[in-house]
Design brief:
This protein is mainly beta. The chain is 0% helix and 43% strand. The chain has no helices and 15 strands. It is globular.
């Protein structure tokens, strides 16, 4: 399906690398009735590449429906990027579904990752089926598969090859 070159994620660097990307990145909420709302749409994101992980994409806040997000109290720490802040999403329309802590950002990232300050990163799925709807993510029109597991947020496209961390038995990699 993909006309992009194959990316062997076992050859991605550690510590991770950050690069500007012009790929078309979208996040779309699909309500239970099939109606769709674009939550994010940009060709001005950043791509983070780390060994054994599909890329994560950071989207500029101006390209995201931030009116549907509320910062929550969750925080995690990444040795490379710093402290992450998390956001809840409230679905538009009458359903009012809330997706908790599936979006994160770095408000004060490390120097190497300072270009993604305040950019938002979405998990590739809502994490569990919701009766009110779900979101999906796309890279250049291709719907991505979420990275396995519930900790990492990689977006897996058809051109990604190599062993992927996150699933059962990969915790110690």
């Amino acid at each position: 399906m993909s006309s992009r070159p194959t990316e062997d994620i076992s050859k991605y660097p550690r510590p991770p690398a950050l690069e500007k990307t012009s790929r078309h990145l979208r996040v779309v909420w699909e309500d239970k009735d099939g109606s769709q709302t674009v939550l994010a749409d940009t060709k001005e994101g950043f791509k983070v590449m780390e060994t054994f992980h599909p890329p994560t994409y950071y989207l500029p806040p101006g390209a995201v429906r931030t009116d549907l997000l509320v910062k929550n109290d969750r925080s995690t720490f990444c040795e490379w990027k710093g402290h992450a802040a998390y956001w809840d999403f409230r679905a538009p329309g009458s359903s009012g579904a809330i997706v908790r802590s599936r979006i994160w950002s770095y408000l004060n990232p490390t120097v190497q990752f300072s270009p993604v300050k305040d950019y938002l990163c979405f998990y590739a799925s809502t994490g569990q089926p919701l009766e009110d709807g779900q979101w999906f993510c796309e890279v250049d029109g291709e719907r991505v598969k979420p990275q396995e597991g519930d900790y990492y947020g990689g977006w897996q496209t058809s051109n990604i090859v190599g062993p992927i961390k996150g699933g059962p038995g990969t915790r110690g990699w």
